[in-house]
Amino acid sequence: MQDNLQTSSYKQLEQKSKYTNMFLRWFLYFVLILFASYFIFPLYVMVVTSLKTMEEIRQGTLLTWPSSLNFDSWLVAWGGRGYGAGDTFLRPYFWNSIKMVVPAVFFSTFIGAMTGYVLTKWRFKGDQWVFLFLLFGCFIPFQAILLPMARTLGVLGISNSVIGLVLVHTVYGIPFTTLFFRNYYVSVPTELVKAARIDGAGFFKIFFKILLPISAPIIVVTVIWQFTQIWNDFLFGSTFSFGEAAPIQVALNNMVLSSTSVKEYNVDMASAIIAGIPTLIVYVLAGKYFIRGLTSGAVKG
Amino acid sequence: MFKWLEKNLPKIVMAPAVGLIGWFVYGFVLWTLYISFTNSKILPKYELWGVGQYVKLWASRKWLISVDNLLVFTALFLIFCIVIGIILAIFLDQKIRAEGVLRTIYLYPMALSFIVTGTAWKWILNPTLGLQKMFIDWGFENFTFDWLVNREMAIYTIVIAGVWQSAGFVMALFLAGLRSVEDEIVKAAKIDGAGLFTVYWKILLPMMRPVFFTSFVILVHISIKSYDLIVALTQGGPGISTTMPALFMTQAAFHKSQVGLSAASAMMMFMAVAAVIIPYLYSELRRENAR
Q: Which positions in chain A touch B133 (Cβ < 8 Å)?
C-alpha cells in the first residue's frame, strides 16, 4: 500500500515534469527565435530597402517585400549616375580600402608572428615585461595618439594617402597580432625548438621549418581579425584622409550624410551593404576563426 | 661581429615591434599629455601653461554633457549586453537544434562596421518612413517613435544599436565559458536534487566570474571609445544631446582649433581606460603565472 502510493505520486510527478519540460522547451525556442529576429531584422530591412524604388519605400513599410528585384540602387551606389561633379559613389573608395587592407594586414601579421616567436621560443630576462609593454597597446584609446599621428604623417609627407593609413594600421595592429601569435606559440613544446637548436638550426630556419608549418590556424585567425578591424575602421580613416584617398567606411558616411536634394534610402542601404559585404563574407566562410579571434584574442593576456 | 649578430638576432627581430610601439604608443601618449599642459590652439605650442586646459574642460558644458552621456550609455550598454548575452548563452546551451545557425545570426553584427550599423539603424529609426510608419500602417494610428530626433531620447537609440552590435559577443564569451565547465559538476548537482535553474543560478553563473570580468572590461572599453556609431547615427545631435568624449575630442582637435583642450580630453579618456585595464591586466597576468 505504502509502496503503491509512493510510486503513483512519483509517476504523477514525472508526468507533470514532462509537461513543464515541454513547455520550457517551447519557451526556449520562442525566446531564441525572438532574439534571432531582432538580430536579423536590420539586415533584412537593409536588403529589401536596397531593392525597392523610392516610390515603393514611401508607400510600403520597412518589412514589405519589393515588387520586383531592382538592382538600380546597387549600380548607383557602386558606380554613380555618370554626371561628373558631385556624383559620389563607392567604387574608387572600395579599391582604396583594398589597397590599404592588404599591405597593412600582411605587415602587421608578419611582425606579430616574429615577435610572438621571439617572446616564446627565445626567452630572455624581462621578456614578460616586453610582452606587457606591447599588450598595453591593445587598449589605449586612439584619441590619445590622434594629434601626434596627424603631425607625424604630415612631417613624413604621407598624410591623406593610402600609404599613411597602411602605416597607421600596421603599427596599431602589432599589439593584437603579437598577442595572438604569442598565445599560440606558448603552447608549442619548447623541446622541439631546443632539439633543432642542438642540431644546429638557426633562428630563421627554426621559424620557417618548425613553427610556420603548424601556424596555419593562428595565421587565419590573425588575418581575419586584422582584416575586419582595418576594413571597418572609421576613426583613422576619417581623421587622416579625406577626398580621394578615403577608405570605404568614410566614403559611406559621406554619401549618407550628403544631403543633396531628396534622400535616397535605397541607395544608402545598397552602399551600406557594399561596405559591409567583404567582412560579412569572411564571417560566413570562416566564422569559427573569427569567433576564436574575438574570444581568445580580444583581450586575454 | 657575426657572433654578436647571431647572439642578438632574436632581439634584433623583435626591435621593430618594440620600437614602433614605444614611439607610436608611449611616445605619442606622452606628447599628448605634454600638449594638454600647454595653451595650444590651432598648432601645438610648447611652453607649459599648467592645468588650464583641464579647468576649461571640466567647466565646459559640452564636456559635462559628453561625460553624462557616456555614463548613461555605458550603464545601459553593459546591463543589456550582459543580460541578453547570458540569456542567449544559457538557452543555447540546452542542446538546441540549429544551434550553429542561431549562433551565426547572433554574432554577425560584430563583423559589420559601426558605420554600416549606424546607417542601417538610422534608416530604421527615422520617424517619417521607419518603424513609426510601420506601426501606423499596421493600424496603431497614434504610435510615435521619434527618439532619433528627440533630445531627451536620442541617446537611447545609440544604446539600441550598440547592444544589437555587441550582445552576441557576450553570448559567445559566456557560451565558451559554460562549455568549459566539467560535466561532472552539473551531474553531481543534479543527483543532489538541484533543478536546472538552481544549477545555473547557484553553481554555473558564480563560476563564470572571470567571464563577467572579461565582458565588463571589453564592453566598458568599447563604450569609452565609441565614436563611429554616434557619427553615423546622430552626429552628436540633436544639438549636442548625444555627444560623447571621443566625439568631443576629435571635434576640438580637428574642427575647432582647440588642440590643447582636445589633448586634455584625450588624456581623461586615457585615464578612464587605464583605470579599467590595469587591474584587469594585473589579474590576468597573475592568473597566468599561477597556472
A: 61-62
Predicted ipTM of the assembly: 0.89
Task: Report CB contact under 8 Å: B111, A135.
Answer: no
Q: Which residues contact B137 (CB under 8 A, 6 or more apart)?
A: A61
A-B Cβ pairs (cutoff 8 Å, strict): 261
B188's CB contacts (< 8 A; 6+ apart) are none
d(CA B245, CA B251): 10
Calculate how close chain A gets to B88, using CA atoms only, in Å.
Answer: 7
Inter-chain CB proximity A171 and B235 less than 8 Å? no
Q: Do B107 and A287 touch (CB under 8 A)?
A: yes
Q: Is A269 within 8 Å of B123 when comparing Cβ atoms?
A: yes
Query: Domains along chain B?
Result: 54-290 (1.10.3720.10)
Model confidence pTM above 0.80: yes
Q: In this structure, what C-alpha cell is assigned to residue A80?
A: 554613380
Residues in A touching B277 (Cβ below 8 Å): 136, 139
The chain A residue lying nearest B253, using CA atoms, is: A147
- Provide the β-strand partners of residue B38: B48
Summarize chain A as % helix, strand, coil (round to 5).
80, 0, 20
Instruction: Note every long-range contact of A64-73, with CB atoms under 8 Å and residues 24 or more positions apart, other chains counting.
Output: A73/A264, A73/A266, A73/A267, A73/A269, A73/A270
Q: Select the residue from B5, B30, B116, B250 to test the A interface by mutation, using most A Cβ atoms within 10 A.
A: B116
Per-residue pLDDT of chain B (291 residues; tens, 9 = 90+): 778 887 888 889 999 999 999 999 999 999 999 999 998 888 778 888 888 889 999 999 999 999 999 999 999 999 999 999 999 999 998 888 888 899 999 999 999 999 999 999 999 998 888 888 888 888 787 777 878 888 888 999 999 999 999 999 999 999 988 888 888 888 888 788 777 788 888 888 888 888 888 889 889 988 998 899 999 998 887 888 899 999 999 999 888 888 999 999 999 999 999 998 888 888 877 776 765
- A147 and B44 within 8 Å at the Cβ level: the answer is yes
Tell me the chain A residues in contact with residue B217 when contact means C-beta distances shorter than 8 Å: 299
User: A184: burial class by Cβ within 10 Å (0-12, 13-18, 19+)?
Assistant: buried
* Terminal-to-terminal C-alpha distance of chain A: 64
